């Protein structure tokens, strides 16, 4: 009898539930319509992004997946069905004198709405794997000052008008602009390119620095980057053919600006289409010499003159903030200094900015220094600009001077990542007597910002990068040589440096033979040739070493050769296969250890026990054994930690969190970190590198206190596969701090994926009044 009762109850329950489920079609009709409209908008967005991916694949000269086209057809058909259904729902069928809704009509359409919504959600899920996640943003221009101010000069306006006329002339495909270094060629070229694209003369405008050492592969990569093209080939010849074909087939009108050209260029070897093969591709080169324009067969040659003394004086007054209220004595000093700049924009802007806001005594000292400055033997009539920039240097404080000289070791037109510059500067001892690494970092940033404000450094095209004008760089190296310690950058292989001046900083592709190494403090070797292990024995004073293998595959390297570098403060190794890292145990002064794209054995406790001063550890892109957090968590002083680990051990394999999380710990002093564990968010990471605290977790174990603390302090937090008995992010995982209505640090961006168990971002039922400023700028 109990069985019969239980069976009857079960049948009744199913009937009631079924009836209730059926009633939702007419009773929740408007909600069902809104639900389908929302999913339809998401499907439209997904289709758009898949179509962008198809377009991108075609631009790369690659075949697109047939399944992708099949999905697009299915999605288009489904969109049409949804549009027809939504149109039918808007007819608003009624009966009974217009007073009551037609329930049968709503019931019939309601079932269709639910079915279509399910079909659309399934279609979106299938299409998401074809979506294009990464898109290159347009790149900013490189300027000393606004183009509006630049074009106020008569000489500059004349060159600008001639350039625009040449770009509009269909019979001209090669244009050359020449003039003295520092007269504003790069600024004007960028402005002309911007204006030409704005007016629709060209579909694409590409800007590539060339420099005195022509590196074809680098030029090819720069062009491809601007055009969002990925090379399938590695050899220069194959790349050239591919680039030529790509530009010819995908771009009807391209303006290619090649900046700072010194020699005749082999356009065919680079992959730049010839005028005969592709009439829509124009080239504008900037150079110091009219002869270089002729060598490159420029049909139109335009000279950019230095500005007139009267124009220079007006600019100088603006930059130095000299007004009518300024004393006549100071105005006279300023006029003398302005005339010495000889109309070169880079010199005017630099000296005016370094003297801006200073008293008359400082101006007198600058003027006296300029008069007493030793004669300069420089070709091209640049004696006075060299002296001017020397005086600008003298007006800097010691930290700014040191950073200025350090920047000149990088190759010509090199875009210097600010993060690399900070680590090198701290390593060479540019900042002293700072208790924390963060404090030293801030001092370098302040000095860098000062140099930018003085126009002795420039914002580069690359994100969070700076660069030096080639004239300013030459002056910096001239200053270093005159002060007794040379700064050298040798980009050729097998180069010899024969000079009696001791070398302080050296950047090279291959270590020069027979070189006195006793005074070198910073050494960077970026090479694809053999590195002799014996070169490190004679560099006892070395404080910073960067050793990068630039071949296609990792190269074996014996780290034992580094054991003699006991004074090293910063070490950067990239692209090497390392079998032993115990050598760091001899580096008692090591503060920064960066290993990029290396394969290495598991971290060992020598990092904890024998490298007590280590403040920064960067293992980005490394393949390693074991769990690095077992070691790093024990270190007493690590303040900055950077780890990208794609191993499946960090991903979710079953319902339980990965075993790696059970041994996850981080150093207590940790203040700055960029950590990605698992592959799920690998495509998102690049855009977030400028932030100090980022965390990307393919699996988030809420029971691990260390992981939860990192997530709480993060500025950028991306998490997936949340595991734990929680239904909300706040306060289920993260707690609202008492009374304040906020966290330790507000999230700038929060992204949550693949966590179906999470019902609420914030459980407002109990904490509505406390949410407040919890995440003021958060996007979820």
What would you say this structure looks like, in words?
- With 780 residues, this protein is an alpha/beta fold.
- Among the domains are: 20-130, no CATH class; 147-303, P-loop containing nucleotide triphosphate hydrolases (Rossmann fold), CATH 3.40.50.300; 626-780, no CATH class.
- 39% of the residues lie in helices and 16% in strands.
- It is built from 24 helices and 30 strands.
- Strands 11-12-13-14-16-18-20-22-23-24-26-29 form a 12-stranded parallel β-sheet, with helices on both faces. Strands 4-5-6-3-7 form a 5-stranded parallel β-sheet.
- The longest helix has 31 residues, at 29-59.
- It is globular, with a radius of gyration of 32 Å.
- The chain starts with a helix and ends in a 13-residue tail after the last helix.
- Mean pLDDT is 80; it is low at 1-21, 133-145, 738-745 and 768-780.
Name some characteristics of this structure.
single chain; 780 residues; Rossmann fold; 12-stranded parallel β-sheet; 5-stranded parallel β-sheet; 39% helix; globular; disordered N terminus
């Amino acid at each position: 009898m109990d069985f019969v009762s239980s069976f009857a109850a079960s049948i009744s329950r199913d009937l009631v539930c079924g009836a209730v489920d059926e009633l939702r079609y007419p009773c929740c009709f408007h909600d069902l319509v809104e639900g389908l409209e929302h999913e339809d908008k998401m499907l439209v967005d997904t289709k758009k992004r898949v179509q962008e991916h198809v377009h991108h694949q075609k631009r790369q000269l690659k075949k697109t997946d047939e399944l992708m086209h099949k999905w697009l057809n299915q999605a288009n058909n489904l969109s049409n069905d949804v549009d027809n259904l939504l149109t039918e729902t808007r007819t608003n069928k009624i009966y009974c004198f217009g007073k009551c809704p037609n329930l049968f009509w709503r019931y019939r359409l309601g079932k269709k709405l639910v079915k279509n919504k399910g079909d659309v959600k399934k279609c979106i899920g299938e299409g998401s794997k074809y979506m294009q996640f990464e898109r290159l943003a347009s790149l900013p221009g490189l300027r000393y000052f606004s183009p509006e101010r630049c074009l106020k000069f008569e000489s500059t306006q004349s060159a600008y008008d001639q350039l625009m006329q040449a770009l509009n002339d269909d019979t001209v495909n090669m244009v050359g602009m020449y003039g003295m270094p520092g007269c504003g060629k790069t600024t004007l070229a960028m402005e002309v390119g911007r204006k030409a694209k704005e007016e629709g003369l060209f579909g694409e405008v590409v800007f590539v620095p060339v420099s005195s050492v022509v590196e074809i592969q680098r030029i090819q990569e720069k062009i491809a980057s601007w055009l969002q093209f990925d090379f399938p080939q590695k050899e220069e010849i194959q790349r050239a053919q591919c680039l030529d074909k790509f530009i010819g087939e995908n771009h009807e009108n391209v303006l290619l600006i090649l900046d700072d050209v010194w020699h005749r260029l082999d356009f065919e070897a680079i992959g730049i289409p010839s005028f005969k093969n592709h009439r829509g591709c124009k080239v504008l080169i900037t150079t110091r010499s009219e002869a270089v324009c002729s060598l490159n067969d420029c049909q139109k040659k335009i000279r950019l003159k230095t500005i007139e003394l009267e124009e220079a004086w007006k600019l100088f007054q603006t930059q130095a903030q000299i007004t009518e209220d300024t004393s006549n004595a100071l105005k006279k000093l300023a006029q003398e200094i302005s005339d010495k700049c000889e109309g070169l924009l880079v010199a005017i802007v630099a000296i005016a900015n370094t003297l801006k806001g200073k008293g008359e005594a400082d101006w007198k000292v600058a003027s006296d220094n300029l008069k007493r400055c030793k004669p300069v033997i420089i070709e091209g009539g640049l004696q006075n600009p060299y002296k001017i920039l020397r005086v600008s240097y003298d007006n800097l404080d010691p930290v700014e001077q040191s950073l200025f000289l350090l920047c000149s070791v990088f190759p010509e037109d090199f875009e210097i990542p600010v993060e690399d510059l900070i680590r090198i500067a701290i390593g060479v001892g540019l900042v002293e007597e700072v208790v924390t690494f963060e404090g030293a970092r801030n001092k370098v940033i302040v000095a860098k910002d000062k140099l930018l404000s003085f126009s002795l450094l420039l914002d580069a095209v690359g994100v969070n990068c700076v660069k030096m004008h080639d004239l300013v760089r030459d002056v910096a190296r001239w200053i270093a040589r005159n002060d007794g310690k040379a700064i050298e950058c040798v980009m050729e292989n097998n180069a010899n440096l024969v000079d009696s001046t001791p070398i302080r900083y050296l950047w090279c592709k291959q270590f020069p033979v027979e070189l006195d190494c006793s005074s070198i403090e910073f050494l960077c070797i970026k090479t694809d040739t053999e590195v002799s292990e014996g070169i490190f024995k004679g560099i006892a004073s070395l404080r910073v070493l960067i050793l990068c293998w630039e071949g296609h595959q990792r190269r074996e390297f014996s780290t034992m050769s580094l054991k003699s570098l006991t004074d090293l403060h910063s070490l950067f190794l990239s692209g090497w296969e390392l079998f032993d890292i115990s050598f760091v145990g001899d580096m008692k002064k090591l503060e920064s250890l960066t290993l990029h794209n290396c394969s290495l054995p598991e971290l060992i406790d020598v990092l904890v026990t024998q490298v007590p001063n280590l403040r920064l550890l960067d293992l980005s892109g490394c393949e390693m054994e074991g769990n690095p957090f077992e070691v790093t968590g024990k270190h007493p002083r690590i303040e900055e930690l950077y780890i990208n680990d794609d191993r499946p051990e960090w991903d979710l394999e079953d319902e339980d969190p990965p075993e790696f999380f059970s041994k996850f710990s981080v150093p207590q002093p940790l203040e700055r970190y960029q950590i990605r564990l698992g592959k799920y968010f690998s495509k998102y990471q690049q855009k977030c590198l400028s932030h100090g605290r980022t965390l990307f977790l393919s699996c988030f174990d809420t029971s691990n206190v260390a992981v939860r603390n990192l997530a709480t302090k993060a500025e950028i937090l991306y998490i997936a596969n949340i595991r734990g008995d929680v239904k909300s992010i706040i306060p289920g995982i993260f707690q609202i701090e008492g009374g304040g209505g906020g966290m330790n640090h507000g999230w700038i961006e929060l992204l949550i994926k693949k966590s179906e168990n999470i019902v609420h971002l914030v459980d407002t039922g109990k904490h509505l009044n406390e949410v407040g400023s919890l995440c003021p700028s958060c996007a979820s």
